[in-house]
Design a protein that fits this description.
seven-stranded mixed β-sheet; alpha/beta
């Protein structure tokens, strides 16, 4: 079911309960009743967070169920495009909906681990043994209602070692597919085109591609698309699940132009998300305190 269909079901439930838009807005913490009205329009593009608030206002429990485990990797070779915050905050949101979520920090910088409050790790707790020795993935840490396989700075050794292992580039893919008990696995790839990033991309069923609404994000797209074609040699069914539009500031003309360009050109390749608003103070605080944005500031 897509989010538009879910919005329609919530509208029927509101009408069944005889609740006004004002009542739902007050219960759900919406700014006003027009925000609820927009969610019910057929041409709306609702967010998962807004529908969760709508459901809470109706006293309805949203549940999450997949027929099989889905593996998604946030991939973009450009740095600073919000890969890590996308993985972290999407993982938390899905876990809040009842999904069993595993996050894998495949970036030696460890920003995902740090952003979840994990400061001290060992190399044995990371993906390293699975890639080097073809062992099962280690027991994950439990953080904020989900599971995490953390990173470590020494993961950087993999950049040298993976090419020397026969089919080493597919070892992470094999290890992830041995997992049981998860609905969603989200992998945070490092911002590069080197072996670790390639391993993380190939491990996925589909890719999440964060794109900031500025020239840096748009300029990286051609390389991303070329790399996806290259990755299909090892993962023939790999594609793009979603372009995640990030760091959008409606006050900046260039951002609005970039958003229009994204919406005009990319839907023929894969769906495009609603833009994530640029709020540097919130994201910086979340990273420093090790608390995902949906928990730090539910709005």
């Amino acid at each position: 079911m897509n989010l538009q269909d879910l919005s329609g079901l919530l509208r029927l439930e509101r009408e069944k309960q005889g609740l006004s838009f004002i009542t739902v807005a007050e219960r759900g913490g919406f700014s006003n009743e027009s925000a609820v009205r927009r969610l019910e329009r057929e041409d709306t593009n609702p967010t998962l967070r807004s529908l969760q608030r709508y459901a809470d206002a109706l006293g309805v429990k949203l549940s999450f169920n997949l027929e099989r485990m889905t593996i998604l990797t946030a991939f973009n070779h450009a740095g600073g495009v919000a890969k890590t915050s996308t993985v972290r905050d999407l993982g938390i949101t899905l876990a809040q909906l009842g999904a069993k979520v595993l996050l894998i920090d495949a970036d030696p910088q460890g920003n995902l681990s740090f952003g979840l409050g994990v400061r001290e790790t060992t190399l044995e707790q990371t993906i390293y043994p699975a890639i080097i020795d073809e062992l099962p993935l280690p027991k994950p840490l439990e953080v904020h209602g989900l599971h995490l396989i953390p990173s470590h700075l020494d993961l950087m050794q993999l950049e040298i070692k993976i090419p020397s292992i026969i089919m080493g580039i597919t070892n992470l893919r094999n290890a992830v597919r041995q997992l049981e008990g998860y609905d969603i696995v989200l992998i945070d790839a490092p911002p590069s085109l080197a072996p670790i990033a390639t391993s993380a991309a190939i491990a996925a069923d589909q890719l999440l591609v964060p794109i900031p609404t500025k020239s840096k994000g748009l300029e990286s797209l051609s390389t991303v698309m070329n790399m996806v074609s290259s990755f299909r040699r090892a993962a023939p069914t790999l594609g793009i699940a979603l372009f995640v539009v990030t760091q959008f500031d409606s006050r900046i003309g260039h951002h609005k132009m970039a958003l229009e360009s994204i919406r005009a050109s990319l839907p023929r390749i894969a769906p495009v998300s609603s833009p994530l608003i640029y709020r540097p103070s919130v994201y910086d605080r979340a990273q420093l305190e090790g608390i995902p944005v949906p928990l730090l500031d539910p709005r």
